[in-house]
Structures are given as structure tokens and as C-alpha cells.
Amino acid sequence: MHIINGVLTEHSLSRPSFSEQTRLPEQSNDKESSIDPNASLDHNFHLTERFVFSPLLTLPPAFGSAYVGETFSCTLCANNELPDGADRRIHAVQIIAEMQAPTQSVPLNLIAAEEQEANFELKPAESLQKTIRFDLKEEGNHVLAISVNYTETRLDDNEISKARTRMFRKLYQFVAAPCLRVLTKVSDLPLHGVETEKRSNVKPLSFALEAQLENMADGPITLEEVAFSPKPSFNTTSINWDVSWPYHQKMECPFLTPRDVMQVAFLIKQQLKPSVEVTRDGRVLLGQLTIRWRTAMGDSGFLTTGWLTTRKRP
Q1: Are the beta carbons of 59 and 16 closer than 8 angstroms?
Q2: Residue with the larger pLDDT of the pair 276 and 287
Q3: Nearby residues of 78 by Cβ (< 8 Å), 6 or more positions away
Q4: Given CA atoms 29, 32, 34, 40 in this order, what sign does their dihedral have?
Q5: What is the pLDDT of residues 42-64, one digit of tens each?
């Protein structure tokens, strides 16, 4: 039986949401027989007819999901469960955390609420709390491995101390699912008035990049930014909602409900210098697509695609 019991609170997997409450419809003008429309509300506050969210937060009924591109965060608590007046003393408590992703294991930095000495004493009913944060970059099973080391000193009747080092380990498993599905397509732009066999020597290369973004999460998200970072040999122009068109106001960021799809596009044009980078199989390296979003409760997400290339060129 462990003197210290590890408790893990999963903040990223227990996302709260605003509680929904709906007023009753107006029944009649007879005040004696009618029911107050606010009788269906479980919280006493002013509610308009068009706004059904209350200031209360509701936890999900089931274990939630973690998504690639978001930050996994949780609080680790090591609690001293000895009763007051126990003949044992707990000190030198140390928590070590490691995230085992599908392709690698990463040691995690633990952030403490306040600085503590290396050999501090954890008294009965006290707890040592630390917070970890980890950016999810891979799909699949993840294991959060927690190790707790501490020293237990037993005091006998003769006040002779006997120290003993103890350790226990706990594993917490969860699955990281994709939040956005990204499909891309690169097309050559035609060069008018130039012979086909002389195009590469007369005009720079030009391409159109199209991307399809699908919300795969369980809740809505807002796309804050979709940008293309080209190689040094290319310039890019966005033709999406972030463009300020003449005599028009800038459009609002797109709002995607689950399984909604958004199309974005970029124009890519080659510069004279430096020369383009070509893969071994004859594909031109263009750049990477960067996407930033935010969930309904304000959690931010970030995703960068791999290097996008053209089709094989002769």
C-alpha cells in the first residue's frame, strides 16, 4: 500500500461546455393559469429568447478526445494520505513524467506552483502539485508515464530514524485523433502565348495550390489562419477570406461545425533567384501549409503539413 497516491486530472480530455437552458413558450394572457416561462431554468439569471446558454459549465458525460495540433495539459498531484500523528515522515518527493508517443518517448518538464526545496517534507493531508504541457503532433495511442520517488522515515520509540526510499509508477493512456483532415492539390498554371517546349526557359513556373480542410472533431472550430510558407525560390499570394478586397470589409474567420469542409487556395510563382529545389524523382518542392484554429471554448490548435511538391516534371 502506497503512502502517496498519484492522482491525475485530465484537463484537455474533460472539456467543459456552456449549459443550455430554454425558456417555456408563452401560453396565454391569463396570469393565473399561465406558467412562468422561466420555470424551466435551473439557475436564476436573466435569459433572452435568442440566447440559450447559461453562465454554468457542464462537464462531458463520457471520456473526451485529444486532437493532433492541440496542447495536452494536466495537473499531477502526489498526496500524503497518512493520518495526523503517524509514526512516519514523507520527504524528498519527486515526480517524473514522460510522454510515450507512437514514434518516440519525450521527457516532460514539470511546472510547479511554487519553488520547493529538494528535501522538503510533505506533511499529512498535503499534496505536491505540478503541471505538464505537451503538444500533440502524432495520431494514435499515447501513454503518459508518471514515476513518483520519495523517502519514508519511520520513527520508533527511541526516536531513532530509519529512512527508506520508495517509488511507484502509473500509466495513463489516451488516443490522439486528427482534428482537421487536409487534402491538397497542386496544378500548373498555363503560360499563354509561349510554346510548350520553351516554357521553362521563357517564363518562371507558376502553380495553384488548393487545399480542402474538413473538421474531424466532435465540436465546432474557428479557422484563425491558413498560410502557405513557400521555399525561398517562390512567392505566394493568398486568395482566401484574409484578403482585403477593394471597397469591401475583411471577412470574418470561417466557422466549421463537425464534418464541415472549407476550400482554400494560393497562387505560387517562381522568382528568378534562387533556383528551385527538386526531389530525386523530379518533383519541385514548394513549401508547407500552416493552419491555426480555436475551439468553441478557446483552446488553440496548430498544424503544419509536410513539404508540398508538384507532379513529376520532365
Answers
A1: yes
A2: 287
A3: 4, 5, 6, 93, 95, 122, 127, 128, 129, 148, 150
A4: positive
A5: 555 555 555 566 666 666 655 56
Residue-wise pLDDT for 81-114, tens only, equals 888 877 888 888 889 999 999 999 999 999 886 7
Q: Do 99 and 134 contact (CB within 8 A), yes or no?
A: yes
Cα torsion through 99, 100, 101, 106, rounded to 10: 50
Q: For residue 65, how many other CB atoms are within 10 A of its CB?
A: 19
CA 71 – CA 302 distance, rounded (Å): 9
Q: What is the pLDDT of residues 149-162, one digit of tens each?
A: 998 888 766 555 67
Q: State how far the Cα of 266 lies from the Cα of 245, in Å rounded to an integer.
A: 15
DSSP codes, the chain: --SEEEEEEESTTS--EEEE--PPPP--S-TTTPPPGGGG-SS-S---TT--EEEEEE--SS---EEETBEEEEEEEEEE-PPTT-SEEEEEEEEEEEEE-SS-EEE-PPEESS---TT-B--TT-EEEEEEEEE--S-EEEEEEEEEEEEEEEE-TT--EEEEEEEEEEEEEEEEEESEEEEEEEEEPP-TTS-GGGHHHHS--EEEEEEEEEE-SSS-EEEEEEEEEE-TTEEEEE-STTS--TTSPPPPPPEE-TT-EEEEEEEEEE-SSSPPPB-TTSPBEEEEEEEEEEETTS-EEEEE---EE-----
Which amino acid is it at 53? F
Grid cell for residue 13: 480530455
Distances (CA, A) of 226 to 136, 137, 192: 19, 18, 30
Count CB atoms within 10 A of the CB of residue 219.
17
Query: What are the CA-CA distances from residue 214 to residues 29, 52, 224, 254, 257 (Å)?
Result: 49, 27, 15, 12, 9
> In the numeric block, which cell numbers belong to residue 94?
519527486
